[in-house]
Amino acid sequence: MAAVNPDLQSERDGATFDTNKLTFLLDGGEGMTERRREVEAEALADPEVTGGPHYHFMSRPEQYSDAVRKAVHYMKQAKTGKFDNPADAHWYRNTLWPNEMAPIGLHTTMFLPTLENNSSPEQKEKWAPLAKDFKIIGTYSQTEMGHGTNLKALETTATYEPELEQFILHSPTLSSIKWWPGGLGKTSNFAVVMASMIIKGKNYGMHPFIVQLRSLEDHTVITGIEVGDIGPKFGFNTIDNGYLKFDHVRIPRENLLMKNAVVEPDGTYVRIAKNEKAAYSTMIFVRAMIVLEVATRGLAQACTIAVRYSCVRRQSELVPGGPEPKVLDFQTQQYKLLPVLASCYAYWFSGLFIRMTYFQINYEIQQGNIDLLPELHAVSSGLKAFTSYGSMAGIEQCRLACGGHGFSQASGLPKIYTTMTAGCTYEGENSVLYLQMARYLMKSFLQAEKGETTTNSVAYLSKKNLDKCVLGATLSPDTIIAAYEHRAARLVRKAGLRVNALEAAGKPYHEAWNLTSVQFTKAAEAHCHYFVVLKFADTLEEMEDEAEIHNVLLQLFQLYACYGITNYAADFTEDGFMSQEQLDMVRLRVLDLMADIRPNAVALVDSFDYPDHILGSVLGRYDGNVYENLYKWAKDSPLNKTEVHDSYYKYLQPMITGKSNL
Ligand SMILES: CCCCCCCC(=O)SCCNC(=O)CCNC(=O)[C@H](O)C(C)(C)COP(=O)(O)OP(=O)(O)OC[C@H]1O[C@@H](n2cnc3c(N)ncnc32)[C@H](O)[C@@H]1OP(=O)(O)O
Ligand SMILES: Cc1cc2nc3c(=O)[nH]c(=O)nc-3n(C[C@H](O)[C@H](O)[C@H](O)COP(=O)(O)OP(=O)(O)OC[C@H]3O[C@@H](n4cnc5c(N)ncnc54)[C@H](O)[C@@H]3O)c2cc1C
Questions:
Q1: Active site: which residues (predicted)?
Q2: What confidence tens digit (pLDDT) does each residue in 599-656 have?
Q3: CA distance 38 to 83
């Protein structure tokens, strides 16, 4: 291994805490870190994983094809039972497809979970082993060209025919063509298709059906189905997001996944699930996972790249006539990066929380107790929106902080950005999800107005909040939380009262709601902000015996919270809750905290523990040897394979010399 750039080494030497110990905390324990590192090391030693063609120098069809090669490699290993532990499989996939979507990504994240959570026991016994063993490869096909958000308006129909005990799948209009499902275009041979179920002329709404799309022998398309790739996108080059059109395709009655609703042979519809949104369960699962696995990890990688590079990059002067400083020593550079780094830690702890909460509540739901479903739906929707937007903006900030080299694919940042930013749209567009959370906030507000106690994430709404902010220079977590509680409670209340007032003035509820929806998305955002601050504070409180790590995390917590206050100053001050003096103090504390955190910046990103292969960045290399590798990167560019490019002979030569050697 090449020697580490002394400018990075000096950062590591000056850190005040043991990065390994912080990595253990982020991974959920020392054992988890060790296992992750083992899985990654094994993958990194495998030429099938690291030895393929250069991602950035391939065309899109080549990128897709190479991703399929990797998928086959993965599936062969999975079939040996090597990845029976889901965490192992996850770490392996992250190394195999760094910031890329696998063509079988939907198979593992949505197809299999839907089979497992929406099938009757007999169906599960039939389909899940086939999917687990990759005997069938599936996707989750819900969105249509005309509708992704409004699931009640999906047009694909599944009409039941009792005589033959079959459903007939049909795409009646152009806009009903399924559009977007990952892995649908070329890879999958099966899909869970969400279609409106019609029995004897009555529409029972969206239900999941398992449908074969292609032959298991030669991958040719089943009669009556038209399927293909939707073409190049903003990112996601390695996955074949697809379209799917049905022309009266018949499937057996048993292909309706019947955990939540059964259709008897004679067409009698029997609902089993207590909640009519049971068919939406896979979406809750994925939203809960996006917080940590998509939003936070993308941001953590971008921070790693930008912070390391900012300690290697020297530019301009700090001391007149003195040597060029590391750019991270400029306060403005710290202001670009350190609040983003603080938010990354904040999101991480919320991500761990929502992942754990999902499994706990889902267990209850599987036992038949659906009391906490609205809370789970609201929190997973809100956090998905809040963290994916924050990460998207944070990654772009990291790119800007890398100057010109940040714009090169060599930085790794464009790939991270384009992959991550899709998370603001898929699995529920962010504004739409904030509005789902807002419904929950509105209901909770009405409960609180009636003097009822609100619980869980909205417990603060029925509490007596402080009228005056007591935040002082010590920035204690309690006073910070109280300030965020106050802001969220006030914004929720303001929006709720406006809906009530508009209704009282004669507007129908839906109109009053629409006229308040901007306020409500801001209230939902404020609620999520409060929640993330709270979960960060909880993590600090639960930490044991690690004074050095506690100190630096406390600084990050304070920076995250103070930066949030300065960014949303009006929310905290306009009702007189926070004084101008307090706001000024908070603004200055942001600057002081950045100076406190600066010596640990590299150690804080090292703690995310990303191997260079996953970062895929010349700028963010662990060894900091940026310039020699940028030069190498440029020399490898396909345009440099010949001294004179073909286009010269084709276009330039005739213009310049009047002749062509072609
Ligand atoms: C790495 C990962 C890769 C992933 C790749 C991406 C894969 C995908 O994108 S798959 C497609 C995902 N698609 C979506 O997310 C679609 C988004 N749209 C929706 O979820 C819904 O249509 C939604 C929630 C916006 C509105 O649903 P709709 O049926 O109109 O419900 P609506 O009338 O607003 O609400 C009715 C009630 O249902 C509740 N509800 C809505 N969704 C849920 C849910 N998932 N669970 C429980 N309750 C729910 C609401 O809270 C509301 O309750 P209440 O009346 O008590 O307030
Ligand atoms: C990369 C990627 C991968 C995907 N993978 C899959 C997949 O595997 N399977 C699958 O089924 N789907 C998939 N999708 C589709 C995805 O889930 C939808 O695109 C997403 O849910 C948003 O729906 P839409 O496209 O209909 O957006 P629209 O709803 O058309 O959004 C357009 C605008 O309208 C606004 N809007 C819509 N409704 C409301 C409302 N009620 N109130 C206020 N504003 C509103 C939105 O906020 C947005 O600003 C994928 C999409 C992408 C980009």
A1: 427
A2: 999 999 999 999 999 999 999 999 999 999 999 999 999 999 999 999 999 999 999 9
A3: 13
**ipTM higher than the 0.90 cut:** yes
How many other C-beta atoms can be found within 10 angstroms of the C-beta atom of residue 506? 8
Determine the length of the chain: 662
For ligand 2, the distance from its centroid to the CA atom of residue 180, given in whole angstroms, is: 10
Domain 278-454+476-610+629-634 has CATH 1.20.140.10: yes
Q: Residue 432: CB within 6 Å of ligand 2?
A: yes
Catalytic residue among 100, 155, 427, 525: 427
143 is in an annotated binding site: yes
| Annotation marks residue 427 as catalytic | yes
Q: In Å, what is the CA distance from 110 to each residue of 193, 317, 463?
A: 12, 52, 39
Nearest CA to ligand 1 atom 40: 277
The distance of Cα 183 from the centroid of its chain, to the nearest Å, equals 18
The DSSP element (H or E) to which 158 belongs, if any, is strand 157-161
Q: Which amino acid is at 193?
A: V
116-132 burial: b if 16+ Cβ within 10 Å, else e: ebbbbeebbeebeeebb
Q: Is the pTM of this model over 0.95?
A: yes
- Pocket perturbation via mutation, ligand 1, pick of 239, 427, 440, 514 by most ligand atoms within 8 A of CB: 427
182 is in an annotated binding site: yes
Q: In the beta sheet, which residues pair with residue 229? A: 242
**Which listed ligand is nearest to 388 at the C-alpha?**
1
Domains 108-272 and 278-454+476-610+629-634 share a fold: no
Domain ranges of the chain: 108-272, 278-454+476-610+629-634
Q: What is the pLDDT of residues 523-541, one digit of tens each?
A: 999 999 999 999 999 999 9
CATH architecture entry for 108-272: Beta Barrel (2.40)
Tell the residue nearest (CA) to atom 23 of ligand 2.
Answer: 148
Ligand 1 close to Cβ of residue 147 (< 6 A): no
